[in-house]
Amino acid sequence: MTAVTVSPKFQVVIPKEVRESMGIFSGQKIQILTYQNRIELIPLKPMSEMKGFLKGIDTKVKRDKDRV
Fold first, then answer.
1. Distance CA 68, CA 59 (A)
2. What are the residues facing 40 on neighbouring strands?
3. What's this model's pTM, rounded to 2 decimal places?
4. Domains in the chain: how many in total?
5. Is 53 left (phi over 0), alpha (psi -120 to 50) or beta?
6. Structural domain containing residue 20
7. Residue 29 lies in a domain
8. Is the pLDDT of residue 47 over 90?
């Protein structure tokens, strides 16, 4: 685990190893949220990169008889 320091402007630098392993690049949007006393950073990907990421997923859903 790598520790980072919060700057006086409340900024942090994402370590190079983490950036490279997650494919984070300069200018990329990252969603930030808090969950159970921790901070999570989630890299957002452009929709063009999302094409086909659910390939092979089972889309058959058991429905009630009164639903089409």
1. 15
2. 33
3. 0.62
4. 1
5. alpha
6. 16-45
7. yes
8. no
**What mean pLDDT comes out for the span 25-43?**
93
Q: How far apart are CA 37 and CA 15, in angstroms?
A: 22
Q: Look at strands 39-43 and 30-34 and give their pairing.
A: antiparallel
Domain assignment present for 67: no
Transcribe 1-30 into DSSP letters.
-------TTS-----HHHHHHHT--TT--E
62 inside domain? no
Q: Which amino acid is at 18?
A: V
User: Could you report the per-residue pLDDT of 1-28, keeping only the tens digit for each?
Assistant: 789 999 999 999 999 999 999 889 999 9
Q: Is residue 26 part of a domain?
A: yes
Contact 24, 15 (CB under 8 A): no
Q: Token match 């890299």: residue?
A: 43
